[in-house]
Design brief:
Layout (H helix, E strand, L loop, with lengths): L1 H9 L2 E5 L4 E17 L23 H17 L10 E9 L2 H8 L2 H4 L4 E4 L9 E6 L4 E9 L6 H6 L6 E8 L2 E9 L7 H21 L4 E7 L7 H6 L2 E2 L10 E2 L3 H5 L6 E3 L2 E3 L2 E5 L16 E7 L20 E2 L2 E2 L9 E8 L2
Parallel strand pairs: 2-3, 8-9, 10-11
Antiparallel strand pairs: 1-2, 2-18, 3-5, 4-5, 6-7, 7-8, 9-14, 12-13, 15-18, 16-17
Helix pairs in contact: 2-3
Amino acid sequence: MMKKQTILLALMLVACLSASAQKKFSAYGVGFYNLENLFDLIHDEGKNDYEFLPEGSYKWNEMKYTHKLHNMARVLSELGTDVLPGVGCAVIGVSEVENAHCLDDLVAQPELAARGYKYVHVEGPDQRGVDCAMLYNPALFEVEDVTLYPYVYELQEDIEKNRATRGFLTTKGRIAGDPVAVIVCHWPSRFSGSYYRELAAKQARAVKDKLLAEEPDRRVFIMGDLNDDPTSKSMVDVLSCKPDVDKVGPDDMFNPWYNILVKQGKGTLMYNGSWNLFDQIVVSPNALNKNGEKDFSQLKFWKNEVFRRDYLIQNEGKYKGSPKRTTAGGVWLDGYSDHLPVVMYLLKEQK
């Protein structure tokens, strides 16, 4: 009981003056982070994880794995604390984690264990063995159902190649009593070509449409390393994401990252000196205040940001200014990830 009271007291309270009274709101963080190759030291049968074994190309060992866990836990525990100090995010989607063993070790790190983080995960078919998962604080998020929807190829030649890849980890639950669904994705790589990410967008949209058809009041968040920018065809045309809240129709999604990339020039990963913003969280229309409304009687989108700290950025050498990776150019840097995390904040009026 004491722990729950402490968390509730620590929630950011936002004052809003009205004609008759002062309203108070609670804020909730929803984040995403690509953990970039969180592998353990054990071979998983049927997976091509050999480069992350002690004898593999990364010379992966207990010391490197332990440091990687600590570094990931540091970032995940700090995500959302700009608004919610001492509390952080209610939920955080993650990608590039090998298995449940890695997740067990991750949530056991002191920074995450202190808040009681748990996780949802379903072992996927990816040939290299990397999966998506979702961490959550059980004091702030209630899990109701978990489903991994597979990524399904449409072309016969792709089916015959059996290039199984990550699916769409979908968790239904509640934040502040309101129904939500979080779809965590890791879409096909840039090397695969735009068609395969457009196919991923089509399938993620189908999951979203199914959820909303069953429960129109459930707020849906599609998040992940989408390997496309907010300006890409998969996002603009296939998933039908809009950068302007007031232009979001009933079948669209709101993408608050479009203007961060296009107008502010900020991103989550760097390629040839330029920023891309592949790590996104997009929102269903029922989580928005449109036309200047400020109705937070139910959970609604407030604001979002790319999470950036000096320690996450390479400060010297060839990759200066880029996210500081665990390994770069064959050299172990004791870094973090080639991606920066992102976070979105939701508000709900306190009764």
